[in-house]
Specification:
With 141 residues, the protein is an alpha/beta fold. It has one domain: Rossmann fold. It is built from 6 helices and 5 strands. The chain has a 5-stranded mixed sheet, sandwiched between helices. The radius of gyration is 14 Å and the shape is globular.
């Protein structure tokens, strides 16, 4: 049985980050992406953030062509769209859980996708928000 797992942007970015200092996290991120025991999920937000990050913010950015190809591959995961209901739920979650709007949008998208697990290094490892357990796959890296 596969576990539904939502990926935050940072996990996907590390899989493509060629910088030497990112090697341990790159290995972990690639293992997550290749784990056949996971039914992976992302959101439209993750796709957009990924594209901007890998083309503009990495020490060795991807070409626009390679980044677009990666976005197309990730799109096969059936991304959760950002709509007015998702935004409203993120605003509410931001207030209740004292998170940034952007982090709340990720949590709400994971909840909407019925993912019991969100892999991210940006939130408190082990916490549960809106029924989604936060796990840091890079813990100890």
């Amino acid at each position: 049985m596969t576990e539904r797992v939502f990926l935050d942007t940072n996990v996907v970015v590390y899989a493509f980050d060629a910088a030497e200092q990112s090697a341990p996290k790159r290995e972990t991120a690639r293992a997550v992406l290749g784990n056949v025991g996971y039914d992976l999920c992302v959101s439209a937000q993750v796709l957009g953030e990924f594209f901007v990050t890998v083309t503009r913010k990495l020490p060795r950015p991807l070409s626009l062509r390679d980044a677009a190809s990666a976005v197309a591959e990730l799109s096969a995961l059936g991304p959760v769209p950002t709509d007015a209901d998702l935004v409203a739920a993120a605003v509410e979650t931001s207030q209740q859980a004292q998170l940034s709007y952007w982090d709340s949008l990720i949590v709400v998208a994971a909840s909407r996708a019925r993912c019991p697990v969100l892999l991210t290094e940006d939130l408190s490892d082990g916490s549960v928000i809106r029924g989604v357990r936060i796990e840091n796959p890079f813990r100890g890296r």
